[in-house]
Amino acid sequence: MQKELTFDRSVEGDAALNGIVRRVSWRFLPFLMLCYIFAYLDRVNIGFAKDSMSADFGLSAAAYGFGAGIFFLGYFLFEVPSNLLLQRFGARRWISRIMITWAIVSAAFAFVDSTWSFYVLRLLLGIAEAGFFPGIVLFLTQWWPAARRAQIIAVFMTAIPIAGLIGGPLSGAILAGFDGYLGIAGWRWMFAIEAIPAFLFGLLVLRVLDSRIEDARWLNDEDKAVLIAAVGEPAGQRQEKTHGVLSVLVDPKVLGYAAIYFCCIMGQYGITFWLPTLIANASGGGALAVGLLGAIPYGFAVACMIVVSRHSDATGERRWHTIAPMVLGGLTLMIVPVMRDHFGASMTLMTLAAGSILTATPLFWTLPTRSLSGRSAVVGIAAINSAGNLAGFLSPLVVGWLTQWTKSLTAGMMTLSLFLIGGGLLAWLFTRDQRSAL
After folding, report:
1. Which of 110, 204, 384, 412 could join 192 via S-S bond, C-beta 3.0 to 4.6 A?
2. Class of domain 11-434
3. CA angle 172-38-385, nearest 5°?
């Protein structure tokens, strides 16, 4: 029977909690970050393979945009069911299942030989990965106190820019170094090689993760009691009056957060899928040069995410720490294509845009994870992330179509910038009555 312990908010109590949280952080965060790095790399490495795939089987800009986006359609459709299954089976088993299946599908991209096979595998990859990110967010709410979540979520989500930081040079090196090896194109080697870590870490999840604090053998009973008291009743475990899944999906609070996140992710995937093309247009460099230059914006984004999230936790302010990066990212992204003939200015703007847009995402998640509870949290977090991933479907599709129609990235980037600025305005309007809580 779990020992009851009232959380001591004295200096001694805070010191004890700090020590426990450090242990939890060192056990889970580096591992989860690596898992997300592999997830994100397997999701977006098609950006580096795009030109080679186009040359090999005639993949057009519009077809690439549709294929990049259809991943998120599969993700969107299976997100909520996956999160409900995660609650049933536990994070340990379900996240392991997700990682192993997406690794297998990602490796299968090495055999793509037509636009239609590209579409099918992108859709299957989205279905396989559905539930991974909201499942991790739910897991984080069950292990860390709310007052520390901005930094924890931000540190976890630095996996996105880190994936770009190491993924660009890695993908470029594989494309250049393995091209023609054993008579196989470099982009096929890239998909096969970059799927291996996800498979191995999917197996390791079974040994590293604990679905609940009570299951952690590496904490004693007193440590568990202190942590449970500090976390409170975490999202997805609170016993309260709740309604069905449909009523949660149409809850104005969930819909409002979903709309804000949709706008945020429209901009994020503008950076993710088109940054290599933007850099190639500005620099005129080859695959390896584009990969190395692409590390600069992502390195800056890592620093921004950590600094801004620490400031948000220190001040307790969430609203403007979310709104300001969205608006700034939108303004800088709007100017990037206009400066394509000026390499230095273009790289500076791309770096600012990446830092701002990628910082907005983890700060956003401090808003719904504080506002939602019980079944509303389990279903709501998945629904909000589904809306974001629907934006992941539309963002590359819209930019790809506009690029093919106008023969330029300018119209596409302008469109995404308007979504970011509009999302910042929507966040300001939607959260103004929640200022005391945010």
Report:
1. 110
2. mainly alpha
3. 120
